[in-house]
């Protein structure tokens, strides 16, 4: 038995996708300005990069779990439908 349902994942995945998008946008805002950052800003960006890696790893795991449920016949939106509004281009 799974510890979280696919219906729950269909709520969690967009929330996590939004957080990943926000972190990516924050990192993009500072791209090329590394030399002008204070030590505190640099540390924050380093923390953001580490957090992004962790969140993306979590998202990969959630996607695998979500897709497994869909392959068992549970009718839910595709993973892409859940995450597309939060893509950073």
- Strand tally: 0
Q: Distance N terminus to C terminus?
A: 37 Å
Could you tell me the mean pLDDT? 89
In helices, the fraction of residues equals over 70%
Order of helices and strands: HHH
Question: Hey, roughly how much beta strand do the residues contain?
Answer: under 5%
Inertia-based shape: elongated
Largest sheet: none
Which residue ranges are poorly predicted, with pLDDT under 50 across at least 5 consecutive positions? none
Protein structure class: mainly alpha
Give the helix tally. Answer: 3
Q: Kindly provide the radius of gyration, computed on alpha-carbon positions and rounded to a whole number of angstroms.
A: 16 Å
Task: Spell out the key features of this protein.
89 residues; 3 helices; mainly alpha; 71% helix; 0% strand
Could you please describe the fold and organization of this structure?
The chain has 89 residues and is mostly helical. It is built from three helices and no strands. Helix 1 (6-30) runs antiparallel to helix 2 (39-71). The chain is elongated and about 50 Å long. The chain starts with 5 loop residues before the first helix and ends in a 6-residue tail after the last helix.
């Amino acid at each position: 038995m799974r510890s979280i349902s696919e219906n729950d994942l269909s709520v969690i995945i967009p929330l996590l996708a939004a957080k990943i998008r926000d972190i990516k946008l924050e990192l993009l805002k500072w791209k090329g300005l590394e030399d002008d950052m204070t030590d505190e800003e640099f540390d924050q960006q380093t923390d953001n990069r580490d957090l992004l890696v962790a969140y993306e790893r979590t998202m990969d795991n959630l996607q695998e779990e979500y897709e497994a449920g869909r392959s068992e016949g549970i009718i839910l939106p595709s993973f892409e439908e859940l995450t597309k509004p939060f893509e950073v281009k």
